[in-house]
């Protein structure tokens, strides 16, 4: 799906997921409030709440009433597994096909630049 056609809450979810996978937020860490994240992203707070709710529905975020939303225990591992599966199922096949068309091999890639 083209990035521009993806619903905003899914794009926000990807930003949050990347922050967790990059280690900005670890298991048990407090996530930014809905309003703070909305302000930082220039998004509607209701849209941010929908992105957070999707994480909560998946068991990746837990809410402590009156305190905030926290990354659930084991969320980083589960999120990494899900993202690896998504990458291998949807992202990698067209990349591999393009590499074959161009005669590129993994060994040709300068992965140090990534």
From TrEMBL:
The keyword DNA-binding applies. PROSITE patterns: HTH_GNTR. It comes from the Bacteria. Residues 6-74 form the HTH gntR-type domain. CDD domains: WHTH_GntR (cd07377). InterPro entries: Tscrpt_reg_HTH_GntR, WH-like_DNA-bd_sf, WH_DNA-bd_sf. The keyword Transcription regulation applies. Keywords: DNA-binding, Transcription, Transcription regulation. This is GntR family transcriptional regulator.
């Amino acid at each position: 799906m083209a990035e521009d056609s993806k619903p905003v809450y899914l794009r926000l979810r990807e930003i949050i997921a990347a922050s967790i996978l990059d280690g900005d937020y670890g298991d048990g860490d407090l996530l930014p409030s809905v309003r703070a994240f909305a302000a930082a992203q220039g998004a509607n707070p209701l849209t941010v709440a929908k992105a957070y709710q999707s994480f909560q529905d998946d068991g990746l975020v837990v809410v402590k009433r009156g305190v905030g939303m926290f990354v659930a225990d084991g969320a980083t591992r589960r999120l990494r597994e899900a993202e690896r599966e998504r990458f291998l199922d949807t992202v990698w096949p067209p990349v591999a096909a393009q590499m074959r068309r161009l005669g590129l091999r993994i060994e040709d890639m300068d992965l140090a630049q990534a």
